[in-house]
Amino acid sequence: MDQFLVAVELLRRPELVGRPVIVGGRGDPTERAVVSTASYEARERGVRSGLALKIAVRRCPDAVLLPVDFPVYEAASAEVMATLRARPGAVVEVLGWDEAFVGVETADPLRTAQEIRAAVLTATRLHCSIGIGDTLVRAKIATDFGKPQGTFFLHRDNWLDVMGHRPTTALWGVGSRIGQRLAAIGLDTVAQLAACPDEPLVEAFGPNTGPHFGRLGRGEGRSWPDDTPWVARAHGRETTYQADLITREEVAAALGELAER
C-alpha cells in the first residue's frame, strides 16, 4: 500500500490531500516519538519512517502531525487483505498491515496486477503499488520501483540490468551494517554479490547466512507465497517514557507498572 497510514488518514481528512502529513506517536513533536509514516510531500523534505518527530518538524515545519490510530489502520488493513483473498485462486501471505505476497496463476501478470490494484481501490479507496516477480525477493524489491500507484516486473532476465549496479543495501534484508560488512570483503554492488562464490560469504557470515546473502544478490528464493497462518512465539509491548528514569525508586515503580500490564 502507498503511504498507508497517511492514506487512511486522508480518507478522513480530505482537506489535507497534497499537504505534507506525518503520522507518529500522539502527534506531539515535544514528546519522545518517531514517525510511523510520512506522506510523499513530507518525504521530499527528508522525513522518513523511524525519524524522531522533533527532527521531522525541523525538516518540514509546515507538516500536519497526526497521532497513530491503531484500530482504524487495522480495520483498513483487514479490508485490503480480504480483497486480495477474494480473488479466485489467490494465495495470500501477509507481511504486515500494508503489505502481502499474492500468488496467482496467470498468463498476463501485468493485466492481473492492474485488476488487483483496481479491486483494492474500489473496495477501500486506497491506492497500492504492485511488484511482480518470479521469486518473492524479486516481487518485494519490484514494489519499490512501482511506487506510487504503479507496477514493476523484476525477473531473472532483467534482474542484473535493473539491480546489478545498485548497492547491496538495495536488497531486501540488507541494511547498512550488513552492507558495510559486505563492502569489507569487496562486495559493494548487487552484481558483485551475485557473482561471489559461497566460500567468502560463509567465512564472513557463517554457513547459513552467507549463502543466503549470495542468493539475495541473485534474486533467488521462494517462488510461491505461504498462506499458513502465522502464530506468534512471543508477545512484547513497548513503552516510551517522556522523561528519563533516574532514581532506583523511579525504575522500580516503572517495572511494577509494566509487570501489572
From TrEMBL:
GO MF annotation terms: DNA-directed DNA polymerase activity
Catalytic activity, as annotated: DNA(n) + a 2'-deoxyribonucleoside 5'-triphosphate = DNA(n+1) + diphosphate
GO CC annotations, alphabetized: cytosol
Record Pfam families: IMS
SUPFAM superfamilies membership: DNA/RNA polymerases
Gene3D superfamilies to which the protein is assigned, alphabetical: 3.30.70.270, 3.40.1170.60, 5' to 3' exonuclease, C-terminal subdomain
UmuC domain boundaries: 1-175
Top-level lineage group: Bacteria
Biological processes per GO annotation: DNA repair; error-prone translesion synthesis; SOS response
InterPro entries recorded: DNA/RNA_pol_sf (IPR043502), DNA_polymerase-Y (IPR050116), DNApol_IV (IPR022880), Rev_trsase/Diguanyl_cyclase (IPR043128), UmuC (IPR001126)
Function recorded in the entry: Poorly processive, error-prone DNA polymerase involved in untargeted mutagenesis. Copies undamaged DNA at stalled replication forks, which arise in vivo from mismatched or misaligned primer ends. These misaligned primers can be extended by PolIV. Exhibits no 3'-5' exonuclease (proofreading) activity. May be involved in translesional synthesis, in conjunction with the beta clamp from PolIII.
Family note: Belongs to the DNA polymerase type-Y family.
Entry-linked NCBIfam families: PRK03352.1
Name of the protein: DNA polymerase-like protein MT3142
Species: uncultured Nocardioides sp
